[in-house]
Amino acid sequence: MRYEREPMPEGGVDLPRGFLAGAVRAGIRPDLDKLDVGVLYSRVPCAAAAVYTSNRVKAAPLLLCQEHLADGRAQAIIANSGCANAATGQQGLSHARRTAELVAAKLGIQPHDVLVASTGVIGTFLPMERIEDAVSCVELSAAGGADFALAIMTTDTRPKCEGGRCGHQGQEYALWAVAKGAGMIHPNMATMLCFVATDAPLAQPYLAACLREAVDVSFNMIDVDSDTSTNDTVIVLANGLAGGDLIDAGHPAAGAFLAALTDCCVGLAKAIVADAEGATKVIECAVEGAASLADARLAAREVVRSLAVKTAVYGCDPNWGRILAAVGNSGAAMIEEKTVVYLSAPENGGVCVYRHGAPLPFDEAQARACLAAREVRIRVALGLGEGAATAWGSDITEEYVRLNSAYTT
Question: What is the C-alpha to C-alpha distance for residues 48 and 196, in angstroms, rounded to an integer?
């Protein structure tokens, strides 16, 4: 059983066997000169699975995906940026259905096998004439993944793409994954949009279980601004063209596939935080010694979502009490006398600032240096059990406020 990550070259990661992709500029937002409609297609039907936002306001394309994925099968995805098609009522749902029909007609497949995803401004309708033109013009190729990654970007400053390979006894499987997201990020399932393609032969129930497990340790552990979007969707397609026996939980390659999928998702989740709107730093919080895994996740997420922590990190202010307060506010079990808090950075040995119910004297200059790093690391030891989890967040800056105060203008 083997897994290896593929470094991303400038042109992006190659698509797995049997997958094609492409993108065009439809002008969904005429003020933005960018690719904004992308299509991902498998030459053969795929086992498919998805996870969605827990927001009670769910966008029309997300509702359509839930309907189309009821049978666990799909063959194509069309995604657009510039318009979320959310809070658009029956007209928005009709537009999503029409979009699937257009792609199906172009590719010679059934509309039910087409998944639709959108991202952008909430409460605006898709310009269907432009969508129709885009679908007719898009050209699909094995090299089209890089353009697809560009087409789904909104306020992202760079595309986010990951790849990996795993294998067992000479059998090789490839994975390719893209995501977009820079704001409205506090997932309770996944990030704003993420699409994964693999040529591995996956049993659909196991594929769905793998996706959920991978999302729980990646997209569900990041925060930019405590907002969960209306459109958050992660979709994985597995076309099986690598050949071999169907992989389920008991297959010798099951662990390698889960590791590859998880690594791709973690890489994309961290890339989203690193590209957060206006951000200057990534905050990593590792919690150990929690009473349970659930408690560890609660505490780690609360630290990286805390505005008090985010602003302290931005200002290089070693105000560690904000970290302790966030852990105490998380709902996780904690006892002050057993809790230890550390600040560190990749190039810094770290500073212990709080231990066993009392502050410790520390070198303030060294602590500020920890917080000045591009990646700030916080470690919290709770001393209550074996639960451990890591979460990632971004700092909050004046630029975040500027960007979001004028998003639609």
Answer: 10
Asked whether the domain spanning 282-405 has the same topology as the one spanning 2-274, the reply is no
Spatial distance between the Cα atoms of 328 and 139, rounded to a whole number of angstroms: 53
Q: Are 224 and 185 in contact (CB under 8 A)?
A: yes
Give per-residue pLDDT as tens, 253-289: 999 999 999 999 999 999 999 998 889 999 999 999 9
pLDDT digits (tens, 9 = 90+) for 41-62: 999 999 999 999 888 899 999 9
- Amino acid residing at 40: L
Q: Residue 172's closest CA among 242, 250, 254?
A: 242
SS3 state of residue 402 = helix
Cα–Cα dist 102/211, whole Å: 28
Closest CA to 318 of 309, 307, 329: 309
Active site residues: 191
Helices within 315-350 (DSSP H only): 321-329
| pLDDT over 80 (residue 175) | yes
Supply 263's token pair.
């690594």
CB 231 within 8 A of CB 194: no
Q: How far, in Å, CA of 313 to CA of 298, rounded?
A: 20
Q: Tell me: the pLDDT tens digits for 381-409?
A: 999 999 999 999 999 999 888 888 876 65
Query: Under CATH, which number does the domain 2-274 receive?
Result: 3.60.70.12
> What are the domain boundaries of the chain?
2-274, 282-405
Stretch 172-194: mean pLDDT: 81
Q: In angstroms, rounded to a whole number, what is the distance separating the alpha carbons of residues 58 and 55?
A: 6
Cα 313 vs. chain centroid, distance in angstroms?
23
A 10 A CB-CB count for 406 gives 8
Model confidence, pTM: 0.91
Distance in angstroms (rounded) separating the CA atoms of residues 313 and 308: 9
On whether the 282-405 domain is CATH 3.10.20.340, my answer is yes
* Count of C-beta atoms within a 10 Å radius of residue 358: 8
- Angle at which helices 321-329 and 307-314 cross, to 10°: 160
Distance CA 90, CA 284 (A): 42
Predicted confidence at residue 347, as pLDDT, reads: 67
Strand duo 282-290 + 375-381: pairing: parallel
